[in-house]
Structures are given as structure tokens and as C-alpha cells.
What does this fold into?
Amino acid sequence: MAFWIGLVAGSTLIIGFLAFGARRLLNTRFSLVRTVLAAIVGETVASPILKALMRGLDPDRPNVASAAWFVVLGWACALLIAMIVLVVWEAFVPTGTIPSPFLWVRSLRARAARTRRYWQITWIFIRAGLGPYLRGRTRPEGESRSRLAHSLAAALDRGGVTFVKLGQVLSTRRDVLPEEFVAELGRLRDRAAPVPWERIERVLRDELGAPVEEVFAEFEREPLAAASVAQVHTARLRTGEEVVVKVQRPGVRTVVERDLDIVRRLARTLDARAGWGRALGIVELAEGFATALREELDFRIETRNMAAVASAHRNTSGQAHNPHTNNGRVRIPRPHEDLCSARVLVMERLHGVPLSQAGPALADRGLDQAELARDLLDEMLRQIMLDGVFHADPHPGNLLLLDDGRLGMIDFGSVGRLDSGLRASLGRILLAVNRADPIALTDALLEVTARPDELDEQALERALGAFMARHLAAGQTPDAAMFTELFRVMTRFALAVPAEFAAVFRALGTLEGGLTELAPGFDMVGEARAFGASHLGERLRPESLRDAAAGELAAMLPTLRRIPRRLDRITSAIEGGRLTVNVRLFADERDRATVTGLLHQFLLTLLASTAGVMAVLLLGLKHGPTMTDSVGLYQFLGYGMLVVCSVLALRVLVGVFRPGTRHR
It folds into this structure.
């Protein structure tokens, strides 16, 4: 028993030494499983080599020195074999491509559920007749587009919450989808059966940290509305204020995360197999959708969005001197941030009906529908151009006709942001469009997009001139669809539309549907021009110009104060012949690290080549001192140099297979 324990302990010690040595010599991190398996292989393969070397020793006259050197060479061979296994393993199965065995067991149930869901969604799409399009064998053209759009909308509707949301997002992408798809996907509605009160009460208790009766004076158990992500209840606070409580459906996050993985897989499949998928940038669409939907599942983000928009709204809504200020004609609910959490949102209640259902109320109450539409458009343009924080999904379901005749905006899960630089660039683009100036529009677009290396700027100017001739010529009535064509012109010339600008035009395109329902025939572009002219005139007033000039001067004052002293130093240095220019090569640490790494690899390659040549020369020598009857000293040294050559070469190769590795 003691013999076997000692044998196991000795083998473990040898394997541990080989694993540690191989990892240190390669100077690269490998997983414990890989390192131990490589050490076991090295020990197994090197043992016969060591036995063959020992067989040449005379048992009657043992040479202790030769035996010791043979043991060293055998261990070196074991290390070399372990390193070869690690490098070859890394070449064919890079680290991170296969999850750890410990994770396999833990994720087995999740993988099974995801696989079932994946095949369920695939079968839904196949039954809808979308199989050839998913495999990239067919491209939608002509009359088949309408049938395909209808089938796609039906399949997404049957797919559940994530796919309904995906269809709603795609319905706003007029810049990438044909009109047939936009129309069909726009009919998707986010609806679901209400969750039983017991489950909703459990979520409220967990998130609020107290029973519902202690937080609210009244709470309506029957939901006001139920969607696939959350449902809404009305309540009254202890202070007497009426509020709306948005509660996330239990378990919806798990469902959404699983389905988002399926969306990404389908997007990668279409990108690889279907040319039209690559043309649409479907992988980028899927990633953007996943990011937006995850934000929508965190009500704390919606709370901050609502507070930001409401704050900017309050700061700018009282400027009575501007004829296009709506003076509070559009209301934004105030969140009760102390009661909001990741799954519960409590906000001020706005009494009214969604704009999509407001037709009878508009007719009965005799409201000025054009004036309401103008107020809504002015509020949206103010959020975009002046505040820089805007509602990014203003579809008719998120717009309310209030009981007092005003309008309201709700559901701020999707919000766009523009900093002052982007707002200025957007203003230059819109000003160039308004003036029908293709040269100014070209300059403005190139200012905010990555310029392709092979861009034909003259061809771009001609294309933009043709675009303006179609939409802005005398007698033409421009509409929001012209921005869709502008995006397509930019796509044709490989100009990447900034995500912030895409959100702006998607929001305006979505708003157009609400404006049409509110006031059929409403001239959205004409009113937007009036808004722009009004605020441009406001900025050109003497008081505004004076304030702007004072602000710019205050920002430049520190620089202006330093200019005389710096000019004096430069002229003094020129007079004394001491003017020098200092240039720091490789000032960036990343540049130094890159050059150091390349030099390191070069030196290792040079040393490996030198050791290899020396090994070949030593192995070629036939005479010289002998260590055993079959092994000479030169041959032994040659094998040793061959091991050194192999170790250095493996160090170079592991750097090739894992270029991002940071050596320790």
C-alpha cells in the first residue's frame, strides 16, 4: 500500500513539475486542465526515451554523471513534448472556444431549453414559408415582397415578446426595409394576457421592500393595460397623488435573454448565407436591438430617461417670446424616483386615451387637430434640437390625448441623446437640405461620418443634387420619406450613418404616423421648416449673439492670455539661435509595447535558428568523447541544443497563435 501511495505521489510531483515548467517556458497562461493533460502526455511519451538512453549504460560500471545528464535530457524531452501539445492544442482549439468542463454540467439544462426554443422558432419561420429566405436561396423581389412581408409579420407575432419587439423596431427602419415590410410590421401590437395579481404582488413586495398596502393608499388590482414585458396598474400614494405603476412580468428577463441569443444566431446565419442580409447589416441591427431591449427591461434606465426629458422640458417650455413654444401643451409625466427600481416604475398619472384611439374624442370635443399636431411636432423638435434628449419611439400608442385637451408622452424606455456638437452638425445638415445646397450637404455629411478611402466626392455631390431635385424642387411637397432616401444615398456611397442621427430620423419617421392620425394632411416638413426658421431667428437676435460671443470669449480667454508670453519666448529663442523642436518617438505606450513585442519575437526566432544550426552541426560529428557505447558527447550536446531550439521556436509559435497574450 505504501508503495502505491509513494508511486502516485511521485507521479503527481513529476506531472506538477512538468506542467509548471511548460507553462513558465511558454510564458503564457493556459487553463489548468490543458496544462495537466499536456504534462501527462509529456511524461508518458518521454519515459520510453529515458529508458532507451539508460539502456546504453554498463550496469557493472555505472557512470553516475552520464546517468544524471540522461535524466536531465529525458526531463527536457518531457517538457518539450508538453509544450508541443499545448502549442498544437492552442493552434487547433484556441483558448475560449470551448467552455470549461465545469460549466458544461451547469449550463446543460439552459442549453437544452435554448435548443428547444431555437427549433421552435425555426419551425415557426419554416411553416410561414420563410425557409428559403433564411437559407439565402431566394431574394425577395417584385410581388413576392408583399406575401413575404405578411408571412414575416405573422411569424414574428407567433414568436412571442422578443420577436414582436423586433418587428416593431424593424417597422421604423425605413432606411433599410422596403415599404411593404414597414407597413406589415407596423401592424404588430405588443399585447399579452394579464399576470395574476398574486405574482404581481410578489414582485412589488420584493422591489419596494414592503407590502403594497404600506406604500400605497389605494392600488387597483385589475391592470390598466397588459403588454408582453410589463403591465400597468393605477394607484394612489399616501400623499393623495394619483400614479401609474408599471410592473415587469415575472420571468420575462429569462425569456428575453434566451430569445436574444436566437436572434443573434439567426442574424449571423443570414449574414453568412444571404447577400441581402449582409446588405442590410443584419448583425449590427440585431446587436443594436439586443442592447435597446435590455435597457427597456431595466426600469431604472427608463426612470432616468423620463427625468432627463422632463427636466429639459421644464427648463425650456416657458419661453413665451418664441411663437413656436407650446407653453406646456405637451405634458411629460414625473417619475417618483424613490419608488422606482429595476422592475417597478411609479410615475404621475396622465388622464387620457392613446392617440391611436382618440378619433371619436377629437371629433366630439371640436379640438383644433392641426394645432395639436403642431404642438406635438414642436415638442419633439425642441427635444432633439435644443435639449439633446428626446423620445426615440413616439408611436401613437405612446402619445395620449389628455382630458384637458393637451397631449402627453409616455413610455420612455427608448431615449436618444445628442451632445452639442452633434446637434450643431444636425442643424447644418437640415440647413443645407432646407437651402437645397448639395455642396453644403456633402460637407456636413462628411463632417459626421467616417470618410471611405475610395470615396468619389463629385459623384456624391451629384447624387445629393439629384436627391434634392426630386424632393425639393419648385412645386414638390417634401415629406419625411425623403430622409429615408437620403440614408440610402449615404449607404450607396458607404457612408456610415451615425447611430444618434439614425435614432433622430427613426423617431421623426415614427412621429409622422401619429401626426397623420391626429391631423390628416399635416405638412410635417413645412412646419419643421417654420420651427427651424423661428429658432434660427431667435439665435440671431442681438441679445443671443452677444451672449454667444461672451461665452466663446470667456472660453478662449486663458489661451489668449498665454499667447503674448509664448510669442516672446519663441522670438527670444530665434534671436539667440536656441530654437529647437522636440519630437518624442513612440510616446504612446501601446506603440512601445508593439515594437518591443516584435523585437522579442525576432530575437527568439534568431536564437532558435542559431540553436538549430548548432544542433545539426553537433549531430553531424562522428568522432569525439563518448558517454556510452552508443551515445557520444557531441550527439548529447546536439540533442540538448535541439531541445533548446524547439523550446524557443514554440515560444514564437504560441505568440503567433495567441497574439493578444500579455506575457508575465
User: Anything to note?
Assistant: Residues 104-192+254-293 form one domain. The first strand starts at residue 216 and ends at 219. The radius of gyration is 36 Å. Residues 318-326 have pLDDT under 50 and may be disordered.
